[in-house]
Design goal:
Layout (H helix, E strand, L loop, with lengths): L10 H9 L7 H11 L4 E5 L5 H12 L9 E4 L3 H15 L6 E4 L5 H8 L5 E4 L1 H9 L10 E5 L1 H6 L3 H9 L6 E6 L5 H9 L4 E5 L9 E7 L5 H12 L3 E5 L3 H13 L4 E4 L5 H13 L4 E4 L12 E6 L6 H8 L9 E7 L4 H11 L4 E2 L5 H21 L7 H10 L2 H13 L96
Parallel strand pairs: 1-6, 1-7, 2-4, 2-5, 3-4, 5-6, 8-13, 8-14, 9-11, 9-12, 10-11, 12-13
Bound molecules: adenosine-5'-triphosphate (ATP) and magnesium ion.
Length: 519
């Protein structure tokens, strides 16, 4: 265990860290902060939810001098929501030093951004497209930038941002520190690293196979037309604190969100066709708990950190293993437990096995949730709510009437009636979704020993057996020792397979018009 005080950080940065409630450094932080402080280029890889943002944010804020009035650091992220979130975390880290940060992303009024840029922020956190827009308008100048960080670099490549990133980086002085972070490192990342990083240190944290997995992973084999009813049952059975449901297309997300609302769930959809105001509103509602189900495309798969997400449900199987890993990584964060369910149509089973193979993690098969289980789940939830009210002594004003009722009626019948009222009826609205074509894996790639299973997950095991987590409370607190996983510094061996060895279904995502997203 490494405390932040051992890392030689400035007192004002330490003050931020302690205000954020971080006590010990996570493994990726303990490994990368000392390297980053030396000014070396760095490639950082560690599992989802293990604090990579602060792993680059802390050394960054530590090194910036408060007297600067130029942009000295640039952070790029693939989606707007992620840029906003990273900016918030960097701002917290910068609070006591008084360093100015500014998020810059598409969909937001450019005039407003230009006005904010006049206040001379030192750190810009943005999405590549809008950054380039400002650079072309000369409202952002990069000639004083000393540090560049690419968060989720592999996703930015997959989204076709290579050209934009190249143009942006060509305007940043050669003499700089460049860092690149992600939970997954597919082969194409090497091209980026070779082009933009100088003799980088690879820092990766790979969990030991024996470590208890924080995300229990299940799948249900199911026909397309049964999926929605199964989803309702699953939500009732599992009673998530907050859930994210991933759908394959924007249409799917819209239809699902609407169908869930019709059945009485507080759900809303997030995808790239919504206006920025709508996107912001949905995220705000999800973060403050006014909706408890977020239905999203892969736009929400990367980096988003919303505490309380106890469940991820892949309503549609994700396109590739990376997407699977990032999607399910929206739960089980910061030492908490989480549960991931994936719906797989019979024709997609091969694709699922491919994901298992690449992630080296067995996904446990479960039967379709039954109506009885759904009812039981709802009843349990009602009982929990009831007991909470009881424990908090929030029901004193009902005691008089309770005594009167108990004089006339049987106590069990009375309580059962109250629970029925409290549980409410699920509106059994019939729902028709537009069917989606199943995904199919390229069989001929299977069993390709060259592929090496999970190189892109760091060359070692990415996790172990689902469903073995301890039976703690449903959403769990921070689990003791949650960060203390096996660690390994990778000498760079983990990324040496050729692009050809990637399966077809896993190729660059840009041409898939169905998936085109304005991130
Ligand atoms: N040292 C720490 N102690 C406790 N909590 C921490 C620590 N570092 C980060 N966290 C918290 O852990 C959560 C996950 O961090 P973060 O979003 O940086 O993960 P990540 O590794 O970038 O995940 P992803 O791969 O999904 O982007 C955040 O809520 C963050 O505030
Ligand atoms: Mg992250």
């Amino acid at each position: 265990m490494i405390t932040f005080s051992e890392l030689g950080l400035e007192p004002k940065v330490m003050q931020s860290i302690s205000e954020m409630g971080f006590e010990e450094a996570t493994p990726i932080q303990a490994k990368s902060i000392p390297v980053a402080i030396t000014g070396r280029d760095l490639i950082g890889q560690a599992q989802t939810g293990t604090g990579k943002t602060a792993a680059f944010g802390i050394p960054l804020i530590n090194k910036i001098s408060t007297s600067e009035d130029k942009i000295v650091a640039l952070i790029m992220a693939p989606t707007r929501e992620l840029a906003i979130q990273v900016a918030e975390e960097i701002e917290k880290l910068a609070k006591f030093k008084g360093i100015r940060t500014l998020p810059i992303y598409g969909g937001q009024d450019i005039g407003k951004q230009i006005r904010a840029l006049k206040k001379k922020p030192q750190v810009i956190i943005g999405t590549p497209g809008r950054l380039l827009d400002h650079i072309n308008r000369k409202t952002i100048k990069l000639d004083s930038v000393e540090t560049v960080i690419l968060d989720e670099a592999d996703e930015m490549l997959d989204m076709g941002f290579m050209e934009d990133i190249t143009s942006i980086l060509s305007l940043v002085p050669e003499e700089r520190q460049t860092m690149l972070f992600s939970a997954t490192m597919p082969a194409n990342i090497r091209k980026l690293a070779d082009q933009f990083l100088k003799n980088p240190e690879h820092v990766s944290v790979i969990p030991k196979q024996v470590s208890a997995p924080l995300i229990a992973q299940f799948y249900v084999e199911i026909h397309e037309r049964q999926k929605f009813d199964a989803l309702s049952r699953l939500l009732d059975m599992e009673a998530p604190e907050l859930a994210i449901i991933f759908g394959r297309t924007k249409r799917r997300v819209d239809e699902l969100a609407e169908a869930l609302q019709k059945r009485g769930y507080t759900a809303d959809g997030l995808h790239g066709d919504l206006s920025q105001n709508q996107r912001d509103a949905v995220m705000r509602k999800f973060r403050d708990g006014s909706i408890d189900v977020l239905v999203a495309t892969d736009v929400a798969a990367r980096g988003l950190d919303v505490s309380g997400v106890s469940h991820v449900i892949n309503f549609d199987l994700p396109q590739d293993p990376e997407s699977y890993v990032h999607r399910i990584g929206r739960t089980g964060r910061a030492g908490r437990e989480g549960t991931a369910w994936t719906f797989v149509s019979p024709r997609e089973i091969d694709h699922l096995h491919f994901i298992e193979k690449i992630t080296r993690h067995k996904i446990t098969k479960k039967p379709l949730p039954s109506l009885a289980e759904a009812i039981e789940g709802k009843q349990k939830l009602t009982a929990e709510k009831l007991i909470e009210v009881l424990n908090n002594e929030e029901s004193n004003e009902f005691k008089g009437i309770a005594i009167q009722l108990l004089e006339q009626y049987d106590s069990v019948n009375l309580l059962a009636a109250a629970m029925k009222l409290l549980t409410g009826e699920r509106k059994d609205v019939n729902v028709e979704l537009t069917p989606e074509e199943p995904l199919r894996a390229k069989k001929k790639r299977f069993g390709d020993s060259k592929f090496g299973g999970n190189r892109r997950f760091g060359g070692s095991s990415y996790g172990s057996g689902g469903g073995q987590r301890s039976s703690g409370p449903r959403t769990g607190g921070r689990r003791e020792g949650g960060w203390k996983e096996g660690e390994r510094r990778d000498g760079g061996t983990g990324r040496s397979y050729s692009k050809d060895s990637r399966p077809k279904s896993d190729g660059p995502r840009k041409p898939r018009s169905n998936f085109a997203e304005t991130r």
